[in-house]
TrEMBL record:
GO terms for biological process: monoatomic ion transport. It holds the Pfam family MatE. The keyword Transmembrane applies. This is Multidrug-efflux transporter. It comes from Myxococcus xanthus (strain DK1622). It is a multi-pass membrane protein. Residues 1-23 are annotated as: Disordered. NCBIfam families: matE. GO terms for molecular function: antiporter activity; xenobiotic transmembrane transporter activity.
Amino acid sequence: MSESSPVGFEPVPAEARGPPEEGPQGFWASVKEAIHGTERDLTRLPVRSAIFLLAVPMVLEMMMESVFAVVDVFFVGRLGADAVAAVGLTESLLTIIYAASAGLSIGATALVSRRIGEGDPERAARTAVQAVGLGVVLSIPVSVAGVYFARPLMTLMGGSPWVLEHGIRYTQVMLGGMGSVLLLFLINAIFRGAGDAAIAMRVLWLANAINIVLAPLLIFGVGPFPELGVMGAAVATTFGRSCGVAYQLYRLARGSGRLRLRREHLRLEPGTMLAMLRMSGAGTAQALVGTTSWVVLARIVATFGSAAVAGYTIALRIVLFALLPSWGLSNAAATMVGQSLGAGKPERGEHAVWTAGRINAVFLGSLGLLFVLAANPVVGIFTNDAAVMKEAVLALRILSASFLFYAFGMVLTQAFNGAGDTTTPTVLNICCFWLLELPLAWVLSGPLGLGPPGAFLSISVAFSVMALVAVVLFRRGTWKHRVV
């Protein structure tokens, strides 16, 4: 090793962007390989090829995750503004669970991807077992507490009398089924870290197919199915996710991907679990900072009535539908960073991040322009209530105007996480969401008299500032020396 090279890394200038192209491959052949699942070593492929093979199934996976939210709003929207408000307020509460799931997922992805990059599939398999064990232990108290505290939580969120009387059953089922959400996120993160993104994609395909079929049947009572109203959406979603978890466990036991779990792997390793908890603890704090801001924003918007909450909910679901595919591309960059660091090729990971950021900017920039210009027909898909539509259209336009900043911010923060540096994104979230976004939302919507648009504007400002600061911090390169 050169004395001038970073500790733990061999100098790899010739390989920073991957080896020479192995030969031309058609676009559709690459798509087929990505969806089917590639078995090639991602640390030795050209960077663009590796990103493509990871990003295609990850984007499709994230699109399927967003479908859960869109399907619920699409069908529940036919029940009225109060029903949509019940879904929106519950979803704001669920962001806390999503944060815990995301935190564990960050640790699992970083550790598994690093072990795969090091060429140590045995340690990767043992790490996966520890992650699943943590998920099972955490899911039980989360589900029980969710059912018990559903009503006081919805009261705290400012739910209307109709929501507290009729929508509470939706909340109880969704919060009671949060164990399936935690495990779904966590095990898919394991697959992504290993480079088996196609398996994670198929999990969401299965879960969503079940949800899409069951939701209208249970909401409206079609045929022999009972008419459960808004609660039917929760039952369909929870059952679909639970089936997805069952399939995940089957694929892990089958061992047909890069991770092959055997009986000897099924033992607890306190050291690995402690390392994952430390990393996941910071990751959970990072996600909690971001997601609790959505809860507070929902509470601020709730002071303006159910129409405002419903409009906020619809606009947010549409934005998530756009952003979650970009999270897929960001997750691909995170996996590339982790595996590149494991293989001793930090410059390759850096190149992958900037490449993913540029691709994301083109995609989100185009989509943001479309939403700004066509907000009315897009929102009209989900509601025909004039008051709700007015709020949703304005929210969608304000949020979409900053999509270019979101593009780079999402990729860069996930790149830090992929390297195992969960502290930097956590500090960024605290400063941009708690110290900037929330006070700004209150001032703009209340004292300055802008109403709900003031809260929407604060979101765009916070994400834009976070992206600019993330660029500066990423260029410093301290993440390249992170040991996990």
